[in-house]
Amino acid sequence: MTVTAHPNIKSATMQKSSPTNGVAMKLEQITIEGYRTHSKTTFSLEDDLTVIVGRNNTGKTSLVEVIDKFIGQNARNRLHTTDFAAGQRNALSKALKDKKTEEEAEKYLPCITLNLLIGYDLSKETKADAAVIAPYFTSLDTECKNLEVECKYAPQDAKTLWRQLLAASTDETNIDQDKLLALIEKTGEYKVTYRAKSVLKEDQTGPANAANELKREDAQRIINTEFIYAQINLDDTSTDGGHYLSTAFEDFYKEVATDDELRANLDSDVEQMQYTLTDAYNTFFKEAIREIHSFTKDTHGGALSLTVASELKTSRLINATTRVKFKDNSTLQTYPESHNGLGYSRLTYTILQILAFKERRTNKQYRSPINILLIEEPEAHLHPQMQEVFIRLVTNLLNDDTQLLITTHSSHILSERKLEKLRYLKREAGTIVCKNISEWATKLKHENRKAHRIISNYLHLRVSDLFFADCAILIEGAAERILLPKAITRSTNTLSNTHYTVIEVGGTYAQHFIPLLEYIEIPTIIITDIDSVQLTTNEETKRTTQKKAQPKLDDHLFSSNPTLNHYFSNPFNEIEKPTIKRLLQLTSSDKQVEDSIRICYQSCDDGYKCSDGTVLLPRSLEDAIIYVNAHLFTNLVSPKQKPSKAHSNRDSESGELQESEDRLQFEEPHLNKLFSNPVTADTFAKKAYTTTNAQAFEKTTFAIDCVQFEDLSIPHYISEGLQWLEQMTADSIESATQTFHHED
User: Fold this and answer.
1) pLDDT tens across 59-113, in order?
2) Is residue 143 part of a domain?
3) Which of 683, 689, 656, 655 has its CA nearest to residue 670?
4) Model-level pTM?
5) Concatenated DSSP letters for 458-503?
6) How far apart are CA 5 and CA 532, in angstroms?
7) Structural domain of residue 689, as residue ranges?
8) N or C: which terminus of the chain carries fewer CB neighbours within 10 A?
9) Where are the beta strands (DSSP E) in 544-603?
10) Are the C-beta atoms of 354 and 373 separated by less than 8 Å?
11) Domain end (from 603, 629, 653)
């Protein structure tokens, strides 16, 4: 069905026009089916900038490539059978093994589909823009404000192809997928088709519309695209063989060459150069021309005079002679482009590509109403500081009616963006899922404004690493960060081989990150302190104060830790804080507060049992470290202490007393006072709580001191949490990489 007019469209002349301010018509949504890792993935786009993030192999590059192959300007960048998704390949093999009939061929033959959903408002569109999409409307319903462009790579004659595949699949027990794909490619049955139709939004109802057939050029006419890939053949070798930046300037010239004024000025200069060269040529070849004339003057050729002239064409001259040079502003020396760093070259190249994109749009006879610039991993070769300002530079170059889509692995680029611009890709059971961080952030802002503000601010402090990591470890401060690598090595076997991110959130803010961690479903542990306190209420003022207290199985002690109080408070009375006794009695499974999130704090297993039977429980990381390593600390020496003979040995050659190698020196001043004289493990443990909980205790220095121990033992609450995280991460990776199996 074709509708030639729409109630809201007046006649419009298809003509070149300048870009408009604002984006009334835009690409709202992209859906990919059957392409590589994308079994079926839907992306929603922002009006201006959309940033696609995710771990490695989550389909970010595939998103860019499939759009390029369907509607990009390079027609040679074609789809192939090797692009079929794994699930479709498996379904094909199973169907052939089961000898499915040719009537079912379309159900089992792989196909790749790209659906582009365009949103428009005819009351706001320019006449030229509206006229571009009007021929493809298949509904006169004024409520219908979406046009769907479907691009499909599928067989033209499914039944014939199915018979060929069945004939080739004689070995039912061992069907070679590679041979099947090669056969499909060889038959040439697969073609790309384009269709467009009017569609209603999900919350609207109405009859289904037929679709209009399109050509590739029609789809490109509606949606203009430009692609800047990560793999650019920039040359930074001394041979200077590629001249890729020079070529980029040549390409830029081709775009601006239609500007009559610019072209006229350049052509005038080239024409003057022609006259100069012609005079020089005739002077140079004067003797040769005279000799030739002396031989031809008495022949029929003597009626003609020979001359040598320069014939320059501006385009040919630019293509052959353009070379980029770089000048050092401090020395005024000039160098070839190959002497410049890859980072600066990459930035220059990208800017040229964007400028060429703008010129191409402006100079087209018929401009497209939708313009999409896709940049793959712009961080390649850019140092972190340049990455952070890159998007600002790019967005300043673009017009308001251009939608920018960027894929990235860079937390530096991400830290410059808002949550509202992000789309997060993750693997689930062998396929890709797109999580709309923008929708989640909007919802969070209404439900928990403080959490939204904290996460948004932390995005500038590299919390954005969360979107690229396999798992996350939230800690209180610098001491935990210093000790964590050793804790991971000592407690786990494979966790150090995964991409884990460590985020300092203090003891107060961890709870505000849990909504984000839960939404992106990343395995996480929160390492925090039990922070036991004794509450005292003034009878006169009724004011309650709290004082640090060593943990005990006591109902009169509470925790001052907001995260513990939030998650372990009385479920029937959230105001009622959990007692230390209750916190110490919680099981390991009780501490898993969400499907993939676990809270780790000091427990009874971290206590120190004295020789008299007394059990000392830790309140913080520092006393927990001491309790589990009390035997090691008895062998320490103060930096000011001279080693005793008991802990020294005599050099066999010089006869001088030397300090034993295992007598480590600690720099933390409060602990050094305890090392002035030899102490027993019990004595040291009993003094640990008072010492480490002193206001002036230097926690960071203590942590650096502790990593000197090669055989440092890790507190149980940390090692248990890390082992849980290791298993959860392994399970998550295994689940994500499982091959998708077709269900009949």
Assistant:
1) 999 999 999 999 998 888 899 999 999 999 999 999 999 899 999 999 999 999 9
2) no
3) 689
4) 0.80
5) HGGGTGGGGGG-SEEEEESSHHHHHHHHHHHHHH-SSGGGS-EEEE
6) 74
7) 607-719
8) C
9) 544-548, 557-559, 592-594, 597-600
10) yes
11) 603
